[in-house]
Model the fold of this input.
Amino acid sequence: MDVEGSYTGRQAIAAVVIGLVLLVLAVAFFGGGQSSTILSTVGSAVGGEPQTGGLGDPGGSGTGGSGNSGVDDGGQVADAAARPPELLIIRTGQLEIVVADLHAAVAAADERVTAVGGYVGSSDETASGSESKASVVYRIPADRWDDALGAVRGLASQTLHAQVQTEAVTNQVVDLGARITNLRASEAALQAIMAKAVKISEVLDVQAKLTDVRGQIEQLVAEKQQLEQRAAFGTLTVVFSLPVTPKAEAVRLGWDPATDVDRATGALLGLGQAAATAGIWFGIVGLPLLVVLAILVVIAWRLRRTISDRRIVQPGAS
Done:
């Protein structure tokens, strides 16, 4: 009897142990699958999209996608607010130099400006012997302005005029950027209203406002780009001229027969013109006056002679 009771007790204990093992396995199996399912959804976006950011990622805070973008945008806004705006300066220069060879100097200046990243905006050349001139407008990168200016001035044998004007447009560009941002926000709001509009009158009203906002955005963007381009490339106008030949240099060159012939011919023509003019005046004005004067002289002489004859005759008659 004792052996049978002991055997029965062992069977009961074994059954209890097997049951506990099976219970633990069942709990581990079903509980583990549920835990993995729950953990797989942590960090997903509202729409069920997986969260790519980890714990070390600034955007992966364990919240939804909208929350993460908010954190990123806030960081970008904070960085933009902390970062000072880029200094934008419009440079405009005028340079007038004297060179020995006009064409060679212009070609060398073009090459030097191109070497620093600039280009020729326009050019004009006037050929008039020693008074020949060439005017060239260069567009030069702002960060290489001084280098280009020094390179061009290095070609001059004499600098007649040099002037550089600057205009800071940083505040204007920042203001235009802020206005563009506000208008884009208004555009997005109008687009949202347009999507919800039902009546045709509402759609037309929103469309008119949207068109006006977009027109303002395009205008401001064009102004901003123009200022940025003018600040990125300065304008330098260079006038090239040849040296003026002094009078002493002309005398040193010696005798020029052609010049003397021209001068003598001019003097002879001048004398001929003067003689022809005198002859014309004499024939038209002088000759008639001489005839009248001769007639008057003859009349006076005859009157005097007649009077003298009468005086002589009267005493003889008495």
About this structure: Confidence is low (pLDDT under 50) at residues 31-82. The two ends are 236 Å apart (CA to CA). Residues 61 and 77 are 19 Å apart (CA to CA). The first strand starts at residue 89 and ends at 98.
